[in-house]
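Exercise 7 asks you to align residues with tokens for two separate proteins.
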Amino acid sequence: MAHKSDLIAEDIERYLEAHQHKSLLRFITCGSVDDGKSTLIGRLLYESKLIFEDQLAALEADSKKVGTQGGEIDLALLVDGLAAEREQGITIDVAYRFFSTERRKFIVADTPGHEQYTRNMATGASTADLAVILVDARKGVLQQTRRHSYIVSLLGIRHVVLAVNKMDAVGYGREVFEAIVAEYRDFAHRLGFEDITAIPLSALKGDNVTAPSAQTPWYYGPTLMQHLESIEIEEDLQHRPFRLPVQWVNRPDQDFRGFAGTIAAGTIRPGDTVRVLPSGRQSRVARIVTRDGDLGLAVAGQSVTLTLEDEIDISRGDVLSVADAPPGVADQFQATLVWMHEDHMLPGRPYLMKIGTRTVNASVTDLRHRVNVNTLEHAAARQLELNEIGVCNLSTDRPVAFDPYQENRETGAFIFIDKLTNDTVGAGMIHFALRRAENVHWQALDVDKRSRAAQKGQKSCVLWFTGLSGAGKSTIANLVEKRLQALGRHTYTLDGDNVRHGLNKDLGFTEADRVENIRRVAEVSKLMVDAGLIVLVSFISPFRSERRLARELMDDGEFLEVFVDTPLAEAEKRDPKGLYRKARQGQIKNFTGIDSPYEPPEHAELRIDTTAMTAEQAAEFVIGMLADAGKLAG
């Protein structure tokens, strides 16, 4: 909503031109529950006369129905749009509002205060230039104040307003205000903020929001609106090295090939030399194409299409950069990860990682520590729960171009996506590439997988037997291997119990350990397939995501999933090792089928119903599948 101006009536074109050239400030309000964030934004809109008459009428009606001010106008309702928010009197989702004054345009995000909505707050902070952190003068600095301040710092916001709200509830006491400011500054000095401006105010009464308050004669600083209008946020994106993540390769006909995207940093002109990452190829810009015609200069924030003088291979997800200052390229990183999903993060579990316009497969290889956002202390951890933050090492399945997040938010930020549900489960900030990634390279070998398998008269593959404990996986796998041996084939069996005597003897049966158990076996299976063997893997492997990881490690057609489908009641009746009985008695924790889930395959290459066939019949069934797939002939 635009600020009312006489120019609107007198000269609308001049007004629009002036409005277009105003600077834009993106800021967030955050703090603990019921600190008055929504009320403050409502007050800014209300006192700046930025509310239409019909909005005001609706606000008055809503205030009488669901307001918290005894029938008076409840300004928080201007922002708290969700029904659940109005019923509970809290902010749940991130609410964005646009408004402007004579001096500046604003986009404000009202972020939730509840700890359970930390992920929402992080989302709102990801694009902000300044944070208004509210503190209730009656309560002082709380844990959630510290939590939000840490996240604000983590996401690269360097300008903070400490808004000590509800001063009217403490008699506008100067001592209260100064004590809160001193406590906050003592905590915040470790967070790297460039400046902290403290303002005593009352969002409910309007003190020091848009006009100085007579209630605080001891305060000589700016009002909140004055500060927001005057603060200089360094706009240095245009002065940074050029970056354009390619979003789309525009090829309408054989005579035009352009690379479209939004410039993330820097400037570009026709004739400039650019480098394409991760390939490293170079060319020069021929044209900068836009809907309104070609440009002689394009800057950060503009969406453009570049054409190059040379025909080089460029795809969506590549990054065009200035030739003499390119971004880094790596497939292993250290990063900070904010976990945003109810299903916790487990090292080794595969996810999709979206960085810029590129999407790759990725996993956390090592969770270095979890951050206690209230004390900033580091704690050892093996997983991240919802809203937790940790520093981790991660690995991608191919090199990606990046900048450290502190240098460029656009090319240094990423999200994790669940492969099955497509839910966004985490968001992260890259610190740096791991040095080991630069020093470890694939060694070219003359003897390859195909020649090794051909020497053995077969085609290598993995037979991955999965099912409940007691389903008959190992029995069937053993019979299959004996049959293959009789046929003169070269095999090896990796059995769940046997592997835990050596390679995986350090792992227990927690969910995190089971994920790592399968990850290691999948990597060993890949090496054995490379050796030309037919590998039989007999593991419960209860989670689809880890079986999918194993499949994706192999080439097409090399991973054959065999679902040994035995009902829980039947497997428990067999109970050859007495494990179900112990699990029922509570002697074994995290036992699949009892207190830990089994996720059956959705698209297995072969399903064996052990209630309808014997183990010998099942083994012949598997041999037939291998023959049909051409695995038994070199």
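Second protein for Exercise 7:
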Amino acid sequence: MARRPGAAVVRDVGAYLKAHDHMSLLRFITCGSVDDGKSTLIGRLLYESKAIFDDQLAALDEDTKRFGTRGAELDLALLVDGLTAEREQGITIDVAYRYFATPKRKFIVADTPGHEQYTRNMVTGASNADLAVILVDARKGVLTQTRRHSYLARLLGISQVVLAVNKMDLVGYGRAVFEGVVAEYRAFGAQIALTEITPIPISAVYGDNVTRHGANMPWFAGPTLIEHLESVEVEARLAAQPFRLPVQWVNRPNGDFRGFCGRIVSGSVRPGDRVRILPAGREASIARIVTADGDLEAAVAGQSVTLTLGSEIDVGRGDVIAAADAAPQVASQFEATLVWLADEPMLQGRAYLMKAGARTVSATVTPLKHKINVNTLEHTAAERLELNDIGVCELELDQPIAFEPYEENRALGGFILIDRISNGTVGAGLIHFALRRSQNVHWQALDVDKKLRARQKGQRACVLWLTGLSGAGKSTIANRIEKQLAAEGRHTYLLDGDNVRHGLNKDLGFAAQDRVENIRRVAEVARLMVDAGLIVLVSFISPFRAERRMARALFEPGEFFEVFVDTPLPVAEGRDTKGLYRKARRGELKNFTGIDSPYETPERPEIRIDTTRLSAEEAAALVMSQLKAAGVTGPA
């Protein structure tokens, strides 16, 4: 029987694809200081591994003529520096991911920027990497950003580092230069417990010791960079850990199937294994391991699967399915390291959204224990974190989560913080351990509850949160409202900004972090008073939307009424009976709202009072009518 033309080729391609599918995968990151040659090194790896198509080579030739820095030679860095701004400046700004393979292994490499202001991008690239290639310019040695990136890599769980001493061609391939850089780096590595360091002298431009040894450094007997990357072991540790699968999605295509989809982050699982669902703690057994290609007899770390359970129990997105006999911990208070990634500073007491795996909860940073100087590793006292700062803090969540210390399990120990207003990522964190008080302090069940206390008083408990500029008339209007409520026989309490600062908050100033803590404390007191069945009036400038939103989140739907006392700044300044605005204008009062500290107007307040049209009595009457319409004040 005649063979079909090309059948051998088809078999060869099929065999290649099958072999490629079973190759191990190494994720690594290149980092270091500006212009140490990271992009050129990756370009060299892509070029030497034949991962560049003819049309890409043609485009690279054209780009070299326009943007290149190597004269007539191909500028391999341009294979990675994809942004126009990067090519014009000759630097890397964004994280660039590239994929290539050798006959022994597949690779995903993240080229990260060297500039300090793009440290957040480096953190992004390192968060999923197994190994870091730290580049050092042989002429410059270990720099500040070399230390910063090394510290962050170690912090993010990368224990294996290749110290690539680059540009050896510019120092005459001198062995003494290389050994001097290695000694300096090892001394720093010892300070941060970074011991698995493989030093390799290279010239990324000419390829020395990247994929071949060459003749320029006969004194170096170690592996080339690609030989080391092909042989380093990174996967065995995850497979040996207990089984963990954070649930990404509940798959319910019909009434007969209910599966829980996610990626196994550690360990292995088989049908029949006993598992625990966290944070609830219920147990079940695995019925099936479902994939698009059919059921599996076993699944291991790195695989994305759908699990079905042998019993019907409640499992939702964000839950963790774990080995029943070696389950992770559950807690709501932690010590953690935090890398701040936003231009706006981190403020103690401010509530952020925390995304840990697939679960999103509310998190408050309090307190900030210290900030870390990455050059000296010194711990310094601080009240806030600025862009690229690293600090150790305590976190308090509004609900418990399943976790493991980051050094044991990166997937269950890592998290990001998200700004509640902009939804932008502002911080990346690593959990150290649960605080003991989170295990020792529990809610005590009480027989007399908020509804009963409010019913005794003939009212519905709530909080009226009056916000506006200094001099807007908040205290005057709040006082009028309370008098009218008292006349109706209502049970109330008025928390006034100035009065509270004489006692509860007398230790706080007017800097942004103090304002945040001021509102946090008052919101917690108001919550206790609402729990007592009272109608609580809060009269505070409360200039930041984030804190007003935090306060609202403490109450049940329908209990929080934001009252915006809307007064233009010139009008409020004209009512300056205390002389505060005049002092602020003269520079005698710092951080004064409306002058040198912002006021963020409410976006959707329940009640808006235009004090240019309404008197204090009319404003109070408006609020009373709104309370009656909302059912807060029924028959006394």
